[in-house]
């Protein structure tokens, strides 16, 4: 990921509608899992970046984190007071097998060269009957300058993303698209950018009034994602479980 992108994430992840809405959706999904009460459950966020999700994860157990970028790692540790280890997928993961009851990878898998090996490496860290929860951007045809600036390797179809977990020996218990209600708007914006040849970044803070509206619309999906799921959307979430 480009250094400027890390800087923008650090500035935006506490207040930007996309980060806030994603946390609300994910927190709802995690609340439905039958985890041991904290602090018994051991929780790991892989690729935590500047640490914007760590506070959200605290109610679910004793939280640790892994992050390859030194500046982001230092910021996450200072912000959260938690241990943030150095490491990267798939081969530089320092934790022992079967160490965690919940592993989270929020928009991480699309960054790695070998996604299958990375999901398998995460599966090995799960203590049965624990969970792996991961999100990724959807639809290869939605590829844009945003993906290039964030050093994405790919975007995913839902079935293809599920297959990574199944190949790693995990059982997919939930798979859904999300960021559905705003999908038409984002699609129109990206088409307009292509036609106009503009390269302005997607991850800029909108005006406060618009940020509030977009955040409420996005977060309104959390009930559907927890229930029947959503058939299309800009992102995909998969929850998979490791058997005994």
Instruction: Tell me the name of the CATH homologous superfamily.
Output: Vaccinia Virus protein VP39
Unreliable stretches: none
- Percent helix among the residues? 25-40%
- Shape-level CATH architecture: 3-Layer(aba) Sandwich
CATH topology: Rossmann fold
Proportion in β-strands = 15-25%
Topology, number of strands: 7
Radius of gyration equals 17 Å
The main sheet orders its strands as 3-2-1-4-5-7-6
- Please report the distance between the alpha carbons of the first and last residues: 36 Å
Would you tell me the overall average pLDDT?
Answer: 92
- Individual helix count: 10
Sheet with the most strands? 7 strands, mixed
Shape: globular
Task: Classify the secondary structure makeup into a structural class.
Answer: alpha/beta
Secondary-structure element string:
HHEHEHEEHEHHEHHHE
CATH class division: Alpha Beta
What's the short version?
With 244 residues, the protein is α/β, with parallel strands linked by helices. The protein is built from 10 helices and 7 strands. It has one domain (3-241): Rossmann fold (3-Layer(aba) Sandwich).
């Amino acid at each position: 990921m480009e250094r400027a992108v890390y800087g923008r994430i650090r500035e935006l992840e506490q207040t930007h509608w996309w980060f806030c809405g994603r946390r609300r959706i994910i927190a709802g999904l995690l609340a439905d899992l039958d985890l041991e009460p904290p602090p018994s459950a051991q929780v790991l966020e892989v690729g935590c970046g500047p640490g914007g999700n760590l506070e959200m994860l605290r109610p679910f157990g004793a939280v640790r984190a892994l992050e390859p970028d030194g500046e982001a790692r230092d910021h996450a540790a200072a912000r959260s007071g938690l241990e943030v280890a150095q490491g990267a997928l798939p081969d530089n993961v320092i934790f022992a097998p079967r160490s965690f009851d919940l592993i989270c990878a929020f928009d991480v898998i699309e960054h790695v060269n070998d996604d299958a090996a990375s999901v398998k490496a995460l599966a090995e860290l799960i203590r049965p009957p624990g969970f792996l929860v991961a999100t990724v951007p959807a639809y290869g045809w939605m590829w844009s300058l945003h993906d290039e600036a964030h050093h994405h390797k790919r975007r995913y179809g839902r079935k293809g993303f599920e297959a990574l977990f199944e190949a790693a020996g995990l059982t997919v218990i939930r798979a859904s698209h999300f960021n559905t209600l705003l999908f038409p708007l984002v699609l129109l914006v990206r088409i307009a950018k292509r036609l106009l040849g503009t390269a302005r970044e997607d991850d800029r803070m909108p005006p406060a009034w618009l940020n509030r509206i977009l955040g409420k619309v996005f977060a309104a999906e959390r009930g559907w994602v927890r229930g029947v799921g959503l058939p299309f959307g800009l992102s995909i979430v998969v929850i998979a479980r490791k058997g005994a």
